[in-house]
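W.,

You were right to be curious about this one. When I first looked at the sequence I had no strong expectations either way, so I just let the prediction run and decided to look at it fresh. Below is the sequence, 155 residues in total, followed by the output.
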Amino acid sequence: MTASFLILTPPGEPAATESAAFVRDGFRWTAFFFPALWLLAHRLWLWGAIALALQIAATVLTGSPGLELAGWTLALTVSVLTALEGPYALARAREASDWTLRSVITARDLETAEHIYYSEHAPPEKPAAYALPASDTSSKAAPPPAIGLLGYDGD
């Protein structure tokens, strides 16, 4: 199964920096089961506080006679929205902090996504310096003339 990875780099860093963040864009089971904790753990303070307030409201509703279905629906909605949109909110929060979205890569896993990204953004290798063959200094004879053939040394 493949997933999309959003690659973000910190402000002022080049594309091939090792501090690039790879955010998997997809359903997160931990965010589904613990929405407020997941958001707070990822420093999404406002969204975490909203999710926590909604979870408390859902708990109160499930304890009220006749409103149990509304409470379960609210709790399920918060969990599903956090699990689906949490990674995107994380990427948007980093972009708001001047992080740069460098690429979106589809890969099987994080290791493959890193390999693809860093192979595309690796600094260019310097071409090998070509050494000219050393001239034979043992013979003092001048090379024969090259009639119209530039670079031909008579061999």
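Here's what jumped out at me. DSSP finds five helices and three strands in the chain. And, maybe more interesting for your project: Residues 3-120 form one domain.

Coffee later to discuss?

I.
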